[in-house]
Amino acid sequence: MRAFVLRIGILLFNEVEELDFVGPLEVFGVASILKGGIEIVTLSKDGAQIRGRYGLRVQPDFSFDSCPQLDLMIVPGGRGAREARYDRETIEFTKAQAARASIASVCTGALVLAEAGILNGRRATTHWAAVDMLRKYPKVQVVEEVRFVREGNVATSAGISAGIDLALEIVRELHGEQAASEVAKEMEYQHD
Q1: Domain limits at 63?
Q2: In the chain, how many domains are there?
Q3: Would you say residue 1 lies in a domain?
Q4: Which residue of 122, 155, 176, 188 lies most exposed, with the fewest beta carbons within 10 A?
Q5: Is 107 a catalytic residue?
């Protein structure tokens, strides 16, 4: 039996927006220190090092083939997400994860979920500048001017800092309002 209650996998790819994945990683990392029960792993298609949009280099923990069972997968955005949505291996892996785990996107990561059909028949949001791209998926009900949208085991968030808000909401659901407030306070993040 696992000693934690939630294994979170963060999908990485070249040209990922750094704060899209580091923001939620920070939230879940602080929550794990304060409350326990969370393991965070990073993954990329082949497990190779990725380079973020602003030059940050990250060596993922796993490839798609070696990735352990996840409870939640986060798909960040950035320029790389616009390309990742056309990568068949990434789409198939994302579909497989969504079939057995919760899935969340930050910013244009919603385009990957839309391409995989995960957002079909659901409400979803993304960064304000990418709303028209998301509208090109006619089965997705696009919601504007919200920080995040939760639809069962699927969640989407708007741009960059909205991913932090969504991660705090997941912490709140997992450990309660006080825990989410403690995490936000530790991060000196203005949390409503």
Answers
A1: 6-186
A2: 1
A3: no
A4: 188
A5: yes
Catalytic residue among 107, 130, 142, 170: 107
Asked if residue 156 is part of any domain, the answer here is: yes
Residue 192, in any domain of the structure: no
pTM here?
Answer: 0.94
Sheet holding 148-151, edge to edge: 38-43, 6-11, 72-75, 102-106, 154-157, 148-151
CATH of residue 33's domain is 3.40.50.880
**Do the Cβ atoms of 111 and 130 come closer than 8 Å?**
yes
Contacting residues for 136 by C-beta, under 8 A, at least 6 apart? none
pLDDT of residue 172: 94
Question: Looking at residue 32, what is its pLDDT?
Answer: 95
**CA pair distance 119, 44, nearest whole angstrom:** 22
Work out the end-to-end distance of the chain between its first and last CA atoms, rounded to an integer number of angstroms: 35
Mean pLDDT on 113-128: 97
Q: Name the phi and psi angles at 118, rounded to 5.
A: -70, -25
Query: Does 191 reside within a domain?
Result: no
